[in-house]
Amino acid sequence: MRQIHYQEIVDRVKELCQEANYDLGQDVIQAFEQAVQTESSDIGKGVLTQLIENANIASENRVPMCQDTGVSVFIVKLGQDCHIAGGSLYQAINEGVKQGYEEGDLRYSIVDDPLSRKNTGDNTPAVIHIELTEGDKLEIQMTAKGGGAENMSALKMLTPSDGLEGVKNFILDTVKHAGPNACPPLVVGIGIGGNFESCAYLAKKSLFKPVGERHREREIAQLEEELIQSINALGIGPQGLGGNTTTLDVKIETAPCHIAALPVAVNLNCHASRHKHLVI
Ligand code: SF4
């Protein structure tokens, strides 16, 4: 049994939170650069150029790329031959978030109760999903998920008779309804199948994949490409100011589901599409 110490996880998670907020991934920056070439509107081109400049300034000056530093969401793959020594994995991740946000001058965006709404003062608790895997490694994926895009996300329990057309219509309606409020250009994460809660998780999980990477199955990859075109034809554009870059990418994950069900979840991510990854 391999041992990983609590403190190592705290330190690495702390760095991960700061990197996520300061350093936009090269996959997203490349997608901005490509979009500058293909964007039809001059205002849209200008917004995309500013987003690249903003990402560069954030990285060089170690400041957050957006004032909304998000909910810290983790997908953790814990090898079954790995033991966390000195404390619990949940505590270690939350302590890393606390230190990362406090020391990194990142905004605290979490309230302790959805109705009484007192800020917890350290951006905890994080949302932590743990998957048990084979082996002795600990893989941690983190995103700082912005509130605007999350608020415009949606889930619908379609029925099999709605079919693929129903799925596509729901996705397009969700993006249309979001308009500028989700801070486009977006990354659109889609879950199809599973049940009510696992469908939402599929959509969230898809957002951790690199922008520009197509699904491993050809049919789903084609659907992703078709949706990119349809969403960009909506004309919402960068920051909602018009243009043909409403989304940088569409990611789909699917899962088996009940014979009577066709759940679809659309989890929108804004242009600050911040996802980081480490393996211990
Ligand atoms: S949704 Fe994204 S870009 Fe918009 S304010 Fe929140 S983090 Fe920033």
UniProtKB/TrEMBL annotation:
Family under the similarity heading: Belongs to the class-I fumarase family.
Coiled-coil stretches: none
Protein name (Swiss-Prot/TrEMBL): Fumarate hydratase
Entry EC no(s): 4.2.1.2
The Fe-S hydro-lyase tartrate dehydratase alpha-type catalytic domain, residue ranges: 11-277
Pfam family, one: Fumerase
Keywords, alphabetical: 4Fe-4S, Iron, Iron-sulfur, Lyase, Metal-binding
Record's keyword annotation contains Iron: yes
Listed GO MF terms: fumarate hydratase activity
